[in-house]
Amino acid sequence: MDFKQQVTTALMGVLGDSLPADKVAQLIETPKTSDLGDYAFPTFILAKTLRKAPQQIAQDLVAEMDQAGFEKVIANGPYINFFLDKATFSDQILRTVLTQAANYGQSDLGKGGNVPIDMSSPNIAKPISMGHLRSTVIGNSIAKILTKVGFNPIKINHLGDWGTQFGKLIVAYKKWGSEEEVKEDPITNLLKYYVKFHQEDVEHPELDDEARAWFRKLEAGDEEATKLWSWFRTESLKEFQKIYTMLGVEFDSFNGEAFYNDKMDGVVNALEAKGLLQESRGAEIVDLTAYNLNPALIKKSDGATLYMTRDLAAAMYRHDTYDFVQSLYVVGGEQREHFNQMKAVLKEMGNDWSDEIHHIPFGLITQGGKKLSTRSGRVILLEEVLNDAVNLAQQQIEAKNPDLPNKEEVAKQVGIGAVIFHDLKNDRLDNFDFDLEEVVRFEGETGPYVQYTNARAQSILRKANQEVAMDADLVVSDANAWDVLKMLGNFPDVIVKASQEYEPSVIAKYALRLAKAFNKYYANSKILADDDQKNARLSLVKSVSTVLEASLDLLGVQAPKAM
């Protein structure tokens, strides 16, 4: 049963035509504490229409209202506070969670619509650093959340496998590299060459001319350039895959920038046919003054195409291939202008579907308040961070539970899960500094805290050693359980909110609140006491574990049964 709908119905019974039902539903609030009720309706909006003080309106409406199905309904100043029938709520919520199990919170909002998600997208021949973590795990979590509400996400790793950096890398490799070094440790040595190039070109700017020349050869299909490019790409992908396996992230497509080489002429031709291309200082642009944006640069004066041309080709290819209902780009906030320009150009071309393209920006992970940069060599390798996190988790498991079976596997689930959870608990647009020891703590607002809470619930169920009897009533009358029950009931709404805002932190923060509420309940209640409510209490424990595991899964975090 939809308990918010029950409140809306009760209000509509006394409001008449004063407000439409959808507006009433929007205005219903959830009080901060349960002693103020479970739902509240503010009457300020009715003061002008009814020509009464909000406090008086609240009292009059409560006096007229049919309160059947509620424990009580009271006027509290300008608010009407609704207290749900706890027995009915408890039985219905627990029965729903246990019956639907992993499907609890699922919906068909998306009606199977395709949603390409451009995510991760590292540059070939450079290591996956902490800077790539956000795009990867945010994109992966959004895909899971969208699946839960009925969309069909298509995860695209738009690899940085083309561009002038390959000219630079070829020059660097030919000057300072060796085949043996690359074979021995591809990414480390390719990065070393790339960094050396940028150190040397400060004193020797002619290196940039050499790099441009090599990239032109690559564009023209030169055999040596193509062979080196292909080799760098293959070796890089092998290294990338190791990290994606650790993170538990899979992709539906690895079509990167090179894939669109033969599709850009079509974009340029279409822009010319529609009279949108203009010459500016020898370059070709699309004027976006009407959108209050800088012009979009389509071709440089030397005829070379740019990121914009390539991204326009990619957007059009994805629309033609997937017939998407939305198309998402999980890319850092500094690219906001670029995506605004891209959408505006597509709109000018007559593609109204560009309205369904959404840039999903995010803030930076910093170290000591400074941005991480590959070019300067100040880079934190993601694989090293994940391995360090696993080691820290293992140390804590050894200290807390040295006899735990599968310690190594649990340490991986906890350590890697901690890094993912820490990223996703932060509001997507926020910058944050990364401190590994804080991230992997078992206490506080961390992934391991949520995992440990779930493992505790599982431990209680193992000790009880009995199945929940679904033919008995599932009424938990313990006052300490009420906040937990209400939070379980909120889970479907939390998922919808996360999907609409493309915001995994909504799920992570919910998981932390639920874990905290359950631990408070656990500390104040004798769950395994042999009385007539033991079955109902176990149904609550099992429901909490079900929802915590579902929450962690939506974030891409595993849930060990014991820790």
UniProtKB/TrEMBL annotation:
Annotated InterPro entries: Arg-tRNA-ligase, Arg-tRNA-synth_N, Arg-tRNA-synth_N_sf, ArgRS_core, DALR_anticod-bd, Rossmann-like_a/b/a_fold, tRNAsynth_Ia_anticodon-bd
Subcellular location: Cytoplasm
Molecular function terms, GO-annotated: ligase activity
Boundaries of every DALR anticodon binding domain copy: 450-563
Source species, domain of life: Bacteria
Gene encoding the protein: argS
Pfam family, one: Arg_tRNA_synt_N
Main location per the UniProt record: cytoplasm
Residue intervals of the Arginyl tRNA synthetase N-terminal domain: 1-84
Motif 'HIGH' region per UniProt: ranges: 122-132
Coiled-coil blocks: none
Family: Belongs to the class-I aminoacyl-tRNA synthetase family.
Keyword annotations: Aminoacyl-tRNA synthetase, ATP-binding, Cytoplasm, Ligase, Nucleotide-binding, Protein biosynthesis
Assembly behavior: Monomer.
Protein name per its UniProtKB record: Arginine--tRNA ligase
HAMAP family to which the protein is assigned, alphabetical: Arg_tRNA_synth
E.C. no: 6.1.1.19
Catalytic activity: tRNA(Arg) + L-arginine + ATP = L-arginyl-tRNA(Arg) + AMP + diphosphate
Lineage: Bacteria, Bacillati, Bacillota, Bacilli, Lactobacillales
